[in-house]
Amino acid sequence: MQWKYFWRTYCLLALPLVAASGELFEEDLTLRPLRDGKLEARFSFTTLLKGATPRDPQGLAEDDEAQHYTLFPLALGQILREHAVTELHLTLNAGKWNYDHWGYPDEPGVSTGAELWAWMGDSIPALLDSRWQGLRQSLAGLFCASLGHLDEQRTTTPALTFQPEGTLPNFTYPHQLRHATLPSEHVCTENLTPFLKLLPCKSLSGIASLLNPHKVFDADWHGLGVHVRYREGAGVEVRLAFQAVFDPVRYSPERRRDWSLRSVFDRSIERACPVARSSKVRVELPSQATYTISPGPTDVVDNMAIYAIDSSDRALDIAMQWPEEGSFEYPDTSKAQPLTDISVRRNLKGTSQADARLTVELTNNLPIQVSAGYLEAMHWHLQFYLHTLKAKLDGASRDDLVDILAYTPPVPHSRPALLQAVLTLPPHATLQLTMDVSKPFLRYTEHPPDAQRGWDLPPAVVVPFAFGELPASNHTPTDSPQRGSLRAQERAAAQARRPRRMYTPVLLVDLATPDFSMPYNVIIMSCTLIALIFGSVFNLLTRRFVVVQVDPQSPQEPVPAQADADAGDRAR
């Protein structure tokens, strides 16, 4: 108990010094019940280094100025300064995000596996790739991840899709983007441990104390992210995020969707982080079913219950219940309306190990026309035949709806393919894209240990960026005022939409795989032959062969046993 009060007193005394040093730390937890009974949880930890600016790449040859951090993660700050990174985004996810039933995620980077993209100043083009390589290796060592495999064979520059989220400093030279994905990488405990060490209070107090590895890695979907950006006039901001989708029905013996912090995380918030300027828990309140929530929130804003975590000794355990429900029945999701503006499906068809066909279906769920950017950053394991690209709208050929902006063909063992296009999606229509692809033959040394499983291909990215107006023909003078108001709301909602990235699920491609059992057979046969040949040669070298002379005369007949006995008696 003495150490507990000593730690609290020390943090309270150090809090004014931290605020005076120009560093701010805020933490936030958002809980959102989903319509299929699941629960989305988003942890966000933001640290702002006020007045700081990214390092100028032209000064990399000189010693960097001393950096003194109190709340800002030192290990991450050293990497950013060493490689002169202006903006950085790293995500490690496991699972497949269901856009149709879960809607848009709070953190847009939900690509399966590892995704890393950064904006860096291009002062010396020859050193940019070297800095990118050093950044990958440094982050791989910091987060215990296989980011070193994000080499030039997986690196692209899709600047149209991944725009900077912060401000790029006004250097005398432009900034360049580097982007790479590794869909076979998954997040686990060895990634969460260094993630928590970057927080000021670690997992000892505050919202981060809920990150129980035994619970968060048992979720249906989970992932963590590190986001660094420069805010002009404010400073350098680092935001650490963790996102997961839990299934309370799976944890409940009564098959109910009731949940609480204790039932989901097996923990409650015992105390606030002393150095956090703001520490809040937000719970989205359902709009249809009857529910109860306890304890009472501090405030309710825009259908969000807000709990402010203070320094009181009382633990916070938020609970939400649906008292009028018995056992939860999962809804028929096949008939439910998608929660996103666009639905995307992508698959790879074909039984041959040399050729296949890539099919992408995009459905516009809105009553207005939508223009979307489409990105394919494909590893050279799958090579496109761009001249076979065909577009069909509800079965009819419509090649005018696809506008190719850029295409970079792949180079085996060197670089991936990059396809960027703009798609026009009419209202309530489905656009189907098909393209023939080929599968190359790999060297036997390039196959992974589980070669029979196949190769994971990176997901495609869709970004809706332009929403049209409602057609005038939909409005008639006989429309009721309520219907006219509804159309006005739809028009205002369409104009207020902002571009959001959407990732398709990863694909699994079956490449031609050699018979890896053949080396075993060759070894067995070789060992057998060597044993036989060695034994024969050894006998020839060590044995002495001698010719034995045989007497041609026949041997004498042996004396019978009775005659021998009589001869013995006469002798006596």
In short:
Helices cover 22% and strands 30% of the residues. The chain is built from eleven helices and 27 strands.
SSE blueprint:
Layout: H1 2-20, E1 23-33, E2 39-50, H2 74-82, E3 85-94, H3 99-102, E4 113-121, H4 125-143, E5 155-156, E6 175-182, H5 189-197, H6 213-216, E7 221-231, E8 235-246, H7 248-251, E9 259-260, H8 261-265, E10 278-284, E11 292-294, E12 299-301, E13 304-308, E14 319-321, E15 342-349, E16 355-364, E17 370-378, E18 383-384, E19 390-393, E20 396-397, E21 402-408, E22 417-425, E23 430-438, E24 455-457, E25 461-467, H9 481-496, E26 502-503, E27 507-509, H10 518-542, H11 561-571
Parallel strand pairs: 1-10
Antiparallel strand pairs: 1-2, 2-8, 3-4, 3-7, 4-6, 5-6, 7-8, 9-14, 10-13, 11-14, 12-13, 15-16, 16-23, 17-22, 17-25, 18-23, 19-20, 19-23, 21-22, 24-27, 25-26
Description of the molecule:
- By secondary structure, the protein is of the alpha+beta class.
- The protein is built from 11 helices and 27 strands.
- It has helices at 2-20, 74-82, 99-102, 125-143, 189-197, 213-216, 248-251, 261-265, 481-496, 518-542, 561-571, and strands spanning 23-33, 39-50, 85-94, 113-121, 155-156, 175-182, 221-231, 235-246, 259-260, 278-284, 292-294, 299-301, 304-308, 319-321, 342-349, 355-364, 370-378, 383-384, 390-393, 396-397, 402-408, 417-425, 430-438, 455-457, 461-467, 502-503, 507-509.
- The strands form 5 sheets. An 11-stranded mixed sheet has the order 5-6-4-3-7-8-2-1-10-13-12.
- Strand 1 and strand 2 form a beta hairpin.
- Helix 2 packs antiparallel against helix 4.
- The chain starts with a helix and ends with a helix.
- Mean pLDDT is 86; it is low at 1-20 and 473-484.
